[in-house]
Amino acid sequence: MRETYTETVCPEPDASVREPDCVAVEGAAACFHCGTPCPDGKWRSETKSFCCGGCLAVYELLAENGLADFYRLDGAAGVRVSQPVAPGRFAYLDDEAVRRRLVDFEDDRITRVTFRIPAIYCAACIWLLENLFRLCPGIGPARVHFSRKEVSIEFENRALKLSQVAEFLSSIGYEPELRFSDLREKPAAFERRRLWLRVGVAGFAFGNIMLFSIALYAGLDAFSGPRFETLFGFMSMILAVPVIVYSGSGYWRAVWIAVRRRILTMDVPVAIGIAAIAGRSGYEILSGTGHGYFDSLTGLVFFLLCGRLFQQKTYDRLSFDRDYTSFFPLSARRRDGAEETAVALSELKVGDRLVIRHGELIPADGRLIGGAACIDYSFVTGESVPVEENAGDYLFAGGRQMGGAIEVETVKPVAQSYLTSLWNQDAFRKGRRGEADGSANCDSGESFNSLTNRFARLFTPAILGVATAAALFWWIQDPSRVLNAFTAVLIVACPCALALAAPFTLGTAQRLLAERRIYLKHPDCIETLARVDAVVFDKTGTLTGAEAGEIRFEGAPLTGDEERWIRSMTRHSIHPAAVRIGKTLDDRRDPGNVASFLETPGQGMEGRVAGTAVWMGSARWLGARGVSVPENGNGLSSAVHVAFNGVYRGAYTLQTSLRPGAGALVADLAKTCELALLSGDRPGDSARFRDLFGAAASVRFDQSPLDKMEFIKGLHQSGRTVAMVGDGLNDAGALRQSDIGLAVTENAAAFSPASDVILEASRVGRLADLLDFSKRAIRVVRWSIVISLLYNVVGVGIAAAGLLSPVVCAILMPLSSVTVVGFGCGGAAWAGRRSGIAADPATANTAARRRVEPGMTATHRETEEGVKS
Amino acid sequence: MSVILILIPLSILIAACFLAAFIWAVRSGQYDDTDTPSMRLLVEDQAAERTSETTSMHDDKSNQR
Questions:
Q1: Measured between alpha carbons, how far apart are the two ends of chain B, in Å?
Q2: Considering only alpha carbons, which residue of chain A is nearest residue B9?
Q3: Bridge partner residues of A144 (DSSP)
Q4: Model ipTM?
């Protein structure tokens, strides 16, 4: 490849951490760039204040290059960059094999690559990214795809390397999310486009045929006789052929599959209808007895395909189909001798030694070789407290290292780690909706047992029955009208409205929920939610929240000076525990200057304040420095121990407490559902939870993933529909076992592939409202179906009497479709209001909001909230 | 009135040309993203107004497309 690069380098904003100047002025100003409150006025430019050096650096970069309009577009729309990009972070992107699979297009001048950037969330982001060429020479046109949160960038590959582009993006806050799955084949865009093409052809034919039909209905043939009827008839037929053959091809495929596998879905009556109309109309035109029903046919196909388009748009927005490859990063750092190289995950072999740094994920099961390991297994075992491991210990893939760099020797390939086996086990695999039985509804993704399909199984035989009965009736009365009546019934029995009722209602409901940060994998989840009568909770993180706990100091009370020292220390840390401690201390007095501050992430921090050496951290960390730490009796809450000048002083214990609204939620749910609490934690707080749940519910601790699964199976056997609310991957099995799994997450980072619903942590209190909303939404769907049935009854009545004419059909069908769609969408909005779930305003794109839809990277999450404890 | 016999096939032909244009548009990817252009529209107008003195003629043309 190109060996030399010209010295064009993107101007990196100088985001190196600046030594804070401790002349503190406590202000409540909001950062001009990102909107988060500035702790003090350290970083300023003219009259604007910033929360950190990163934001200030990006601001300066934009201002220098004439892009200050960014701030006029959406207020403080910037993304916070609190950690400078480590050099070499994206070095693996320059590897030939990796690059070739990632880029869309490459020739000797230009390379085009598409990055997924979860931080895109507003119009200002679009503008900034599409104006990248002004910030960085070498970068050319860029185009953002907002709903997929992607940006396609063209750059001159002689001037810039791919890794430099990624680094530059990260430095302004738009870090690309690079996942293992990106290395695999990308799905063709053609699939999506095919639906548009089909809709276009059907719409074209529908419109033109309707023009002919209106002329005929209005009596044109009275002017010039049957010539026009013949002409128009043939033209309708010619126009309808592509619709039947191309636009409707999905339905023919469905019928073929249904016949082969003897299952009945909504596609079957549609296909029957199309066939009946086509047959009858063709006969009428060719024999000159009429001008056919092709307007109804093309209209039918058009409306149904529009329904599919609507469903697909909802899908695009909220796609979280994930398997383990979406969870893992693209590469890891491998040590060969003294060198470290970035290697793609697909190239890792057993025996490779990996260097894993703070905050990084362990990609494969391995053995700890060196370094102080403090692994956060919250996603694998559900334990929220990091585990300290010794050399020689076995480390599981999926754990996150919190601490210095460690060296791990790979023992199993990535694909065979405990984590992926947990996800891939057949026992855990729910049939993917619509595909397990090969139903062609995989296009629309409807589950086999959805309301619509169950209805189709009643509808089809009923219609065939009525048609046969009508035929028999006429056979007796007037045999010449037998065929007329039979085909008429099949034509007018409009499955259109039926097929549209559920998708539109549930699709609207799904969007309504998504705007309120409850993300459903699929609209059918609403049906399951409506049936739920048992709810199982996981304790950590779902009912408790780390923020609102009580902080107590264990030990002799601190003097004012000592509090001041501690406060000075905590101000330099972004660790949540330190921040919380700092908040409880008196902030009226000026904190002192801290010299030689050093934080060991995840373990502790040290510094000198006013001549005293202050150490604050975990018991083990202090112990390693020779401070004797007394046994902490209460094992459940995390503690931050304090030592002055090497002498133990005391500890801050941080209690976890219930989320606001948890009590009310449990009381609400208990009215309609059986409740249970299964937690993997030790039973330290059991009394509190038993009180909360009452005697009727089961409250169990020390549950392993298998225990949880067994319990849910038990509930199933007693005939209940179970919803499981969890937050860790150790619940993955239970989430799959339950009828519907709800994953609670602090930031919609969505890492549990077995969950059907992703709930932001602040939304857990809404669970009762969610169930109520689902019940109402399903009620709306049922009513929509009733309405469409009424239309059908009228139509079939006319048809069975042999009185059907094309006009009636052409009016009835669009009318029923529009009524049902309108009722469904309106009904979904009503359900939202009545259930109370619409009480929160939709929070789509406010600049103040820092939440992003599912897909946000773990690294971005860290950037937002600092080091997770 | 019999001129309709010519006009109708002709108009169908013209309509078919539009259909062909639609098909071309879908295949060239113009329907892949129907959300972003609506947001981009707002953004560019404001930017073009304010930075007109710093952008070159070329940039103006591409902004106003």
A1: 44
A2: A235
A3: A151
A4: 0.74
